[in-house]
């Protein structure tokens, strides 16, 4: 062992996350979705090197960049216990900081068991590749013997922590505390008790913080993430952000965090939000054009910001006030991360979810406010048209298998996709997943067993569109290789019926 790597006395609080969550995927936040893909198809060693390389360290083993949520906890703990008592590092450097003085190891996770929307959908669809990469990496971290060598308490939090409870993995993973919910108000007291060796419950549901309790990060975040809003309030029943209190953060705070990231060398700023148009919005979700334009202009001017990427957007505000898109698009495109046919474009994640007015009314009737549920398909088509006219090509999630979904509902979604023919969009079809912190948390989830021929058709239609639009020159190779694997497995597992959607995806005449 290099003498510099010899264990020292240890830092009292060590914070970390799995190797995949400590990567910026070459500064591509959308590729980070592939953490939900199966882990056994390509060797982990290769993926770590070429797909999700670790964030660099500061030369002393501390992480140069870390997940935003972990940075928030780090800032709170530094305030509470002093900077010298807290350190954040990536898994390969944990041994440099854990020693006899280490009392608590805090682990942040988004998808520890691969039970999130993307993981459940794509691991089961690809089928033979084992657990999702995110779950494999978390298991490797939590089973690292150094975590328990000196009797440190293990506290796990983050947006995916609920999976450990749902998957009954507390004992297998030997966690001392699993914290569910936002940590800003509750984490300092929990860490204090752990430091002082006081007993703690195995699961803690945190209290909602007031906006003034949420600290500024003090060190840079991966992807240059900066939170602009928290919570949503539109009330979609499968969604966890809607359970949080809605807040917009003041522009000077946002600017400070963005500047901190840019100064540290982050070429990208991701504006974290569940909907860009919620930023300082008015009653009934009426968007605040002045505030949004000022936000984008301010962050766009920060020196060193090469890419500026808002995380999510709702569709109804685009139709309500198209001028917002027209005013912010030139900046977002100039600072766009993607190219299509040699042209610089930008993207944003949107939720279409379904084309069924019945399901919209039943599970998401706030989604299109200030419009009515019956307007949803028209809003989707119009909003995507406005985005496309301004060189914004969205990444759109669609959810199938919502409780009580009928063939008519699925057909309505397929009709909507048909209405969007020619639109520049990347579809991400997903199985309905009942996450813990949502109104449908106890409802049966969709999975492969519920995949009808129509669902297969639906998946095939979405992916065929994606391949045609985004990789036309590679279409043959991508399609042929992925289909070969796909067909071999599913022909064996589900019988001949699976050939129909595959043939449709490949584009041969239907048989
Ligand atoms: S609009 Fe989006 S963020 Fe808001 S509740 Fe619905 S799914 Fe969640």
Brief write-up:
By secondary structure, the chain is α/β, with parallel strands linked by helices.
Keywords summarizing the entry:
disordered C terminus; 4-stranded parallel beta sheet; alpha/beta; 6-stranded parallel beta sheet; binds iron/sulfur cluster; 511 residues; pyruvate-formate lyase- activating enzyme; 17 helices; 36% helix
Describe this structure in words.
Strands 2-1-3-4-5-6 form a six-stranded parallel β-sheet. Strands 12-15-16-17 form a four-stranded parallel β-sheet. Mean pLDDT is 87; it is low at 506-511. The longest helix has 20 residues, at 475-494. Helix content is 36%, strand content 13%. The protein contains 17 helices and 17 strands. The termini are far apart. The protein has 511 residues and is α/β, with parallel strands linked by helices. It is globular, with a radius of gyration of 23 Å. The chain has helices at residues 44-50, 68-81, 117-126, 133-142, 146-149, 162-166, 187-195, 251-263, 289-300, 316-320, 322-334, 357-363, 376-389, 407-419, 453-470, 475-494, 499-506; strands at residues 13-17, 86-88, 104-108, 153-157, 177-180, 203-205, 225-227, 229-230, 247-248, 268-272, 307-310, 312-313, 338-340, 343-345, 349-353, 395-400, 426-431. The chain has two domains: 3-145 and 157-211, no CATH class; 220-506, Alpha-Beta Horseshoe (pyruvate-formate lyase- activating enzyme). β13 and β14 form a beta hairpin. Bound molecules: iron/sulfur cluster (SF4). The site of iron/sulfur cluster has 12 residues, from loops. Iron/sulfur cluster is lined by residues 232, 234-236, 239, 241-242, 274, 314, 351, 364, 367.
